[in-house]
Amino acid sequence: MKKTPLITGWREWAALPELGVENIKVKVDTGAKTSSIHAFDIMPFTRDGKEWVQFEIHPLQDQDRLTRTCTSPIVDYRWITSSMGSSQLRYIIRTTLTIGRFSAQIDLSLANRDEMGFRMLVGRDALSGTILVDPNRSFLLTSDPTTKGKTA
């Protein structure tokens, strides 16, 4: 029996529990293959013979005061083409993404998204087969904490 997919809006509130991020506003972007997060001060290192990366993130949109220091094993390096058409070799980590009742392990590229509108994009690989996107709606799976539970 086929499972009914969840329907999400084009933007949602998400959590990355393994990285200590309780709330981050994400753009659900079916045009992006791989999910991406704004990361800076990226420093690779070795732990127990394996490649890891430490990086900083600002989880809240338009706010640079709150910073989270994150560490994660590196699972891959990939050439990612940005929406501007330039390609960049990026670190890829694997972490849990939670949006409302949806939760999955996703690959996440670390990138400088300082000039972009959202600190994180959720790409189609993270959604494949489980989520449909309603491009006319927002916050269908989550409440916007900045509007005290109202949906947009």
Descriptive account of the structure:
With 152 residues, the protein is mostly beta strands. It contains 1 helix and 12 strands. The chain has one helix at 124-127; strands spanning 6-9, 11-16, 21-28, 35-38, 40-47, 50-57, 68-73, 76-81, 87-99, 102-111, 120-122, 131-134. Strands 2-3-11-4-10-9-8 form a 7-stranded mixed β-sheet. It has a 3-stranded antiparallel β-sheet with strand order 5-6-7, with no helix packed on it. Strand 5 (40-47) and strand 6 form a beta hairpin. The termini are far apart.
Main beta-sheet strand count, sense and barrel state = 7 strands, mixed
Helix vs. strand class:
mainly beta
Which whole number gives the mean pLDDT?
A: 88
Helix content: under 10%
Compressed to H and E, one letter per element, the order equals EEEEEEEEEEEHE
Side-by-side strand order of the widest sheet: 2-3-11-4-10-9-8
- Low-pLDDT segments: none
Number of helices: 1
**What is the terminal-to-terminal distance?**
33 Å
Measured by DSSP, the beta-strand proportion falls in over 45%
Shape: globular
Secondary structure tally: strands: 12
Radius of gyration: 15 Å
Q: How do you describe this structure in short?
A:
With 152 residues, this protein is mainly β.
Give a quick set of tags describing it.
mainly beta, 3% helix, 3-stranded antiparallel β-sheet, 7-stranded mixed β-sheet, 152 residues
